[in-house]
Amino acid sequence: MDHLLYGAxxxxxxxxxxxxxxxxxxxxxxxxNLVRIAESTWATxxxxxxxxxxxxxxxxxxxxxxxxxxxxxxxxxxxVPPWLARRYPAVLDTGAGAPNRFGPRQNMDITNPDYRxxxxxxxxxxxxxxxxxxxxxxxxxxxxxxPYGVATPAVQARFVAYLREKFNGDLDALxxxxxxxxxxxxxGAWEDFPDVRGTVNGSVGAEFERFxxxxxxxxxxxxxxxxxEYRRPxxxxxxxxxxxxRGYSYGLQPLxxxxxxxxxVTVAGCDIYHPSQDALTGIEIALGGDIARSLKDGAPYLxxxxxxxxxxxxxPYPGQLRLQAYSHIAAGARGVEYWHWHSLxxxxxxxxxxxxxxxxxxxxxxxxxxxxxxxxxxxxxxLAELQKRSEVALLVSNTALTALGWYGIxxxxxxxxxxAGAQYNDVLRWLYDxxxxxxxxxxxxxxxxxxxxxxxxxALLVPALYAxxxxxxxxxxxxxxxxxxxxxxxxxxxxxxxAKIWHDAQPHALTEALGVRYDRFVTPRGVGLTGELxxxxxxxxxxxxxxxxxxxxxxxxxxxxxWGDCAAITENAYGAGRACHLGCMTGPKTLRAVLLRALEGAxxxxxxxxxxxxxxxxxxxxxxxxxxxxxxxxxxxxxxYRGAAGGDLxxxxxxxxxxxLTLPPWGxxxxxxx
Length: 674
Hints:
Blueprint: E1 5-9, H1 20-30, E2 34-37, H2 42-45, H3 55-67, E3 70-74, H4 82-87, H5 113-130, E4 136-140, H6 153-166, H7 171-178, H8 202-228, E5 236-238, E6 240-241, E7 244-245, E8 249-251, H9 258-261, E9 269-271, H10 283-294, E10 301-306, H11 320-330, E11 333-338, H12 364-383, E12 392-395, H13 398-406, H14 424-437, E13 443-445, H15 451-454, E14 459-462, H16 470-481, E15 485-489, H17 511-514, E16 516-517, E17 521-522, E18 528-530, E19 541-545, E20 548-549, E21 553-559, E22 567-574, E23 577-582, E24 584-585, H18 588-601, E25 613-619, E26 625-631, E27 637-640, E28 646-648, E29 654-655, E30 660-663, E31 668-673
Helix pairs in contact: 1-3, 8-13, 11-12, 14-18
């Protein structure tokens, strides 16, 4: 992509009247150069089985082609039509909590043969109509695909076959790996394998979730193979990966192995929604972008959905749409698309407002989109050539996330799964948010990262790596021994990849690298911290390991009559590197002090401005830096420019090293080195 894409999802079939030419004119005025269509249209394109009508699709393609607006076509498979549910009821999901009723989207078994047969037919018919069109630049596979707990008899039979293959038909190996002697869960014959929906064995439950994630990878790759039969070499394939949802995009998606699933696409895509108004911080935009960028090893990605207005608590302040657009670009995005162009007049998302409100006229959001579109049209060539690189990485793991869903961080005798309280993504966000506040950018790395990938980073942060294979722990140990700086948190190196707890000293294979051992952990209530890095007013929170240093230096201890002789935060010299371990969750000031010490010791630059001004860096083809100064606040802010002499991309004004930049409320400055 040699230019930035800027657009919105567009649904001609939803409109209360014929608006197509009016909307195209408004898009052209706004600098919109891309729309996404068709991903929700199965019942419209095939109103009865075998009866096809692509009128809405072709009329939009005709209009966009004439206007010079590019189109992404989504395969319409994530919401099944009524006739399919009636004629093929076995298609509907019967997973844990699934209603097995028609109505919601993504309520089907994506492995069902009838679903696959009918989905393939509508995909092929749609592609035959759309792939030859000049305006079609790419295809989106399905939409925010997830398994949603699908556990039909057919899926469970496949799971048993998967286990037989994994354990080479050895039931003793299965029982031993999953600890199935407990509570008479031992399986004596493969045909006796029980319904997974009732399991209390976290190893079985976590393995089934891993299997379900693999179904998503297989499903998207299946669709990709069909699309490849039709698409031109210049047409890309993408998917809109989304994230853990807490009323907005929050952290690593628990239901999809996005790293594996991204093998199905040529360009990674994502959907990022975030708090707005006074709650806009930029953190969700940055984290979502870092994850999306990592899916194809640092390659640019597309933001296929983000909010224009959304619900009332997201209605943006003046300047925020501009700030948000540049925030995505600063994280490495090559395109930003709003969901959606117009607001709906019926159904459950009627109040998730698009660029246009319900009156479909020009408004404040539209006028700001126009201003952003004009700027991107002028700057797009320079911003589309940027690449990201970081000195710090954060390792994320679906295996650890899932295992901690079964063995909760805050587990008690009354709730062994601890469905409420801190989860894996809370620990991830604890670290990531602290990095963001320090203006330290990071890449995301995955458990399959080889030693040479890890070695690229001066510092590696690892949140709550509760369950991990021996090989990964060995690579982390080697990373420190070879000179890296490792920062780990509580709940790391406790269990293997099957969520079976190691039976030696914790933290298992990292005891020497971290220089600590422990065999006790507590829920801290009224437990303070003392020591050189303990900050006033902050104590241990959520979970606390009672660490016994072997070679590590103690940076903080617990201030408590029972636990006062135990370490809370440690630092250890090991080989040519250094490792820091946070045995408990702390307040933000203590975490900041710990990270500053670790990062500065690793030689990481931590001298940029502080939040609420975020400084993001990217690099042009000649290696010259472009700095984005993003003010996430309602007040005017100042920041010192620390790059080589350059110029403001918006005004053309020269900027010297050390010059103080003034940022208006929710403002943006982009400075390029010369």
